[in-house]
Design goal:
By secondary structure, this protein is mostly helical. 74% of the residues lie in helices and 1% in strands. It has one domain.
Amino acid sequence: MRQALAELVGAVRGELAELSLSGPRLRQANIAALAVGLALVLALILRLNNPWWAGISAFMCVQASHPQSWQKGGMRIVGTLAGAIASFALVPLAVYDPVATMLLLFTAGTLAILGALLSPHGYAWLLGGITAMMVTLGSLNDPTMALSIAFYRAAEIMLGTATALLVTWLLAPAESAAAAPPPGWHSLLGRNWHVLSHAVRTGMAVAAVPLVWRQLELPNLSQMAISIGAVMAVPTLTGISEKDQSAIAQRMLHRVAGCILGGCFGAMVLFLPISQSFVPWLLLLMAGTWLAMQIQNGSHGIPGVGAQAAIALILTLVQDTGPAVSLLPAFNRIAGMIGAIGLLVLINLLLGPPIGAQSASEEKQG
């Protein structure tokens, strides 16, 4: 762990020392800053409940070219709508029954990761599952809020995505690289058993969120579920236990590091007297997302740190009506993210290595 931390610190320092002031990396950082700023302004003008979701969606959908952005943005919109509609239909049937609620969350978490790893439309599956988790968990205290939560989450995410698509269409290049094809849904009980096992673990962790929340009274249970999905949505699984567990641990570490970087930057901004004036606040927030996108696209292999730093920064600086006036909401949201990582560690310790995964020693023998 000490070596991993030292390597991560060195990578962050390397990215900051090598900030690009020209070329594709600078262009994408500029586009991200513009898209996030515009999305937040529009969300505040429209008085959406949680405008930070528009900013986060804008950042996440900015890709190197506008075809790539349109592909990711389209899947984000389709997945969000599907998850919002499905959860709105199912929540009234499940939310009064703790077992049914856990089953709904388990299904959403499992399908989100299965689809993310196996489907050619993986990002849509991931966003659909995450949106269903958000609506379900947000409705636990008051099931009558399911429609409102589903509507506003969809509106906020779609607004941010549409803004990113507009800005990338205007400013990003047209060329795009072909992505590697996913493995497909076949052989879940055979060759892809390790993927099913991984997805089921995710579903179990998500289903446990309400139990942990009620027992420990942790804040922001929706952030816990989202973080579980984000950590477990590794780009690929090898089927080799040690390698896959190492990849998940690395994502956890990068997520925590991003939270710290983005949260600290946001806290420093809030301590500045000018942070309560709208224009300086917006410019500082855009500058932070510009820096986060530079880290995400750098050469030191820590894209997750950059993405998570942007998310933590937006969550820190944006509150319901505009510039943040307190750090408490940010602490609650970030605590939810870190609590999710603790829950994942606990689940993995209880269950041991994934069933059906090949070990590194077996790989060498083969």
